[in-house]
Amino acid sequence: MKIAALAGGVGGAKLAQGLARCHPAEKLTIIVNTGDDFEHFGLKICPDLDTVCYTLAGMENPSTGWGLRDETWNALQAVTSIGGPDWFGIGDKDLGTHLERTRRLRAGETLSGITREFCNFWSVEPLVIPMSDDAVPTVVITESNELDFQDYFVRQKCEPQVKGFKFSGSHRSKPAPGVLENIDGADIVIVCPSNPWVSIDPILALPGVRSALGGKPVIAISPIIGGKAVKGPAAKMFSELGIKASPLAVAEHYGSRQGGGLLSGFVMDDVDAALKAKIENLGLLVLVTDTLMRGSEDRIRLARQVIAFGETTIRREVS
Ligand code: FO1
């Protein structure tokens, strides 16, 4: 079975690692959000892309989920000792990735090409594709102004109240080579338990992505468990937008195929089992299981369950 997974951030990276550990690499493509990319110190930083690649390589920092393990901070300390900005934590080893990526981009290479080659060096076997080679920065609309994503997320610690999001220029951008082709060639598409608003929606906003997904069984895993996000501001975003954060809200956000939306199947946590019937009423097949990924065994177990559920979903769509 060929799988295309849409991912962004730490939750997406964890499930992507589970998928990579239980499914043949040549049958797995991971398409990653780049809406949170930005320039800092003149360098191109791709946080979600690096989080997914580092995690697939087993090199991620286990306490933060982002950045590299066994990191040191000499460069950042040197910068701050002469008055430079300290709000974005770039470690010494991580800095190497940004330096080399920026050098190659300036030499005219594409982000998708560079990512493929970095993945070879890091022994990441599944194909990892940034959603676009074009810059498509996510803008957070707040009560008082519009903020660049990392300004909102890291510098202001997600404190401003959100009113909405803009995926600047996505209609003028193209999905990176391989994005639409791998969705078209997939038997199933998995929407990882990433933030729907700022990790998955930027991918869906690119021209051609929604229509490519239209012909496929698509399964989403809820990043909201018991009204809270496992990590990050997804639950806070739902409530600031006037929606009670729950798996039902996530399922309604993506919509069911039957109702003109995206999904055929939905995976949610045991603690939310009481919502199963309401989500089924949207026209979705629902799997209720333990979706919390505490360690590597959980990631593999959940990935196996999602793949088996995907096979059931395909059979239902065929019959
Ligand atoms: N997140 C933080 O909360 N604080 C940081 O200082 C920080 C630094 C950082 C450096 C490299 C990188 O790849 C990611 C980094 N992140 C940091 C995470 C990142 O900004 C967000 O988690 C994502 O953009 C949202 O998915």
Produce the secondary structure layout.
Blueprint: E1 3-7, H1 9-22, E2 28-32, E3 38-40, E4 43-45, H2 47-56, H3 74-81, H4 92-106, H5 111-121, E5 127-130, E6 138-142, E7 146-148, H6 149-155, E8 162-167, H7 179-184, E9 188-191, H8 196-204, H9 209-214, E10 218-221, E11 224-225, E12 228-229, H10 234-240, H11 247-254, E13 265-269, H12 276-280, E14 285-289, H13 296-318
Parallel strand pairs: 1-2, 1-9, 2-5, 9-10, 10-13, 13-14
Antiparallel strand pairs: 3-4, 6-7, 6-8, 11-12
Helix pairs in contact: 1-2, 1-13
The structure holds ligand FO1.
Keywords:
binds ligand FO1, single chain, 18% strand, 319 residues, 13 helices, 7-stranded parallel sheet, alpha/beta
How would you summarize this macromolecular structure in one to three sentences?
By secondary structure, this protein is an alpha/beta fold. It has helices at 9-22, 47-56, 74-81, 92-106, 111-121, 149-155, 179-184, 196-204, 209-214, 234-240, 247-254, 276-280, 296-318, and strands spanning 3-7, 28-32, 38-40, 43-45, 127-130, 138-142, 146-148, 162-167, 188-191, 218-221, 224-225, 228-229, 265-269, 285-289.
Structure explained in plain terms:
- Helix 1 crosses helix 13.
- The strands form four sheets. This protein has a seven-stranded parallel β-sheet, with helices on both faces. A three-stranded antiparallel β-sheet has the order 7-6-8. Strands 3-4 form a two-stranded antiparallel ribbon.
- The chain has 319 residues and is α/β, with parallel strands linked by helices.
- It has 13 helices and 14 strands.
- Bound molecules: ligand FO1.
